[in-house]
Recover the amino acids of this structure.
């Protein structure tokens, strides 16, 4: 799972095996270690109680929460991404994107190529 943060936006991109794991387990996490006990964990989780896609930051973890029904539907069809905006105060919003990761057309040596989703902009198929 790849994490991209820019300004007031957060984007998670998942490979095919990660989407499958997310659908089966209801969560997937990655962790960046900074040495010692310092780390940043980022997670994508489902919740039957969630009414919309939302992000939260607690301790050293960023979690994006997706309603379970929305997550299951997304994982089982051709829909590329999920998108939401979350109010964060003072009229500001946080844009949240969760996307399926496509084969990179410009980098045929990408190590994730075999596990990426077929890129609709290319005739090239992984595997």
């Amino acid at each position: 799972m790849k994490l991209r943060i820019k300004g007031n936006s957060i984007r998670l991109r998942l490979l095919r095996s990660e989407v499958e794991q997310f659908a089966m387990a209801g969560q997937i996490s990655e962790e960046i270690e900074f040495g010692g006990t310092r780390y940043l964990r980022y997670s994508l989780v489902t919740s039957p109680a969630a009414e919309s896609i939302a992000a939260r930051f607690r301790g050293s973890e960023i979690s994006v929460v997706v309603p379970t029904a929305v997550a299951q539907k997304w994982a089982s069809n051709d829909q590329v991404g999920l998108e939401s905006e979350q109010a964060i105060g003072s009229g500001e919003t946080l844009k949240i994107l969760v996307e399926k990761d496509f084969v990179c057309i410009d980098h045929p040596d990408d190590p994730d190529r075999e596990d990426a989703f077929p890129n609709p902009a290319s005739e090239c198929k992984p595997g």
